[in-house]
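Anyone have tokens for Taurine dioxygenase? Sequence:
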Amino acid sequence: MNEKLNITALGPYIGAQVSNLDLTRPLSDTQFEQLYHALLRHQVLFLRDQLITPHQQRALAARFGDLHIHPVYPHAEGVEEIIVLDTHQDNPPDNDNWHTDVTFINTPPAVAILASKLLPESGGDTLWASGIAAFETLSAPIKTLLEGLHAEHDFKKSFQEYKYRRTAEEHQRWQEAVAKHPPVQHPVIRTHPVSGRKALFVNEGFTTRIVELSEKESDAVLALLYAHATKPEFQVRWRWQPNDVAIWDNRVTQHYANADYYPARRVMHRATVLGDRPF
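Reply: yep, here.
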């Protein structure tokens, strides 16, 4: 049996497509090792025609580590580790901004796995950007400036209160999530715990300020970094088909879910693997 994966790079900095792998079946150690090394190298991997159930998606994600249970998003029936991202006329998209998932906790996710379940006729692409490429292309003086700095990440920046007032129960869940998730600090430049590569680790979704700088300095530096990190050169864009799966290294990437399809409906399932404290 041939267990060698076909891995095709989609660009020099980020993204690869994986073929001849069936995610509905348990991966052998050899297959998983190849997948993991490809993820470290390419930062986001794409697979077509993977009709995985929430239970299978959870099992695959658990190979990478312990799973996160999201404080506000709904989950698949009977599988609380799989969140359901269901956008439609009565539930507008809220992830059409550049963000790294769940950086508002002390140990942000290491890996995420997203499966397409229902797609609009057109639109709804997702873009990923490489934080490694963003860091490596900065000038030496800017790298030196950023090396010792820390940024604050806040749950409330992306999950604003007004969005969660439709019912008393929803508002209470939001208030409990805020109480459980005070702002946290992470280094502006993080080191990948496995590869040792350095990456820019700020994102518009959750980063509020650089703590060592004045407010105006922080705003100016963050504006520069947000614009730099999301240059088209550092991106890969995926045009979803039904039953596609994307697996990405959340430690060194950010992503943007294009909301051009709204108010059509789009349903995705996501599993999120807990990471370690950024350093």
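The CA atoms of residues 28 and 175 lie 43 Å apart.
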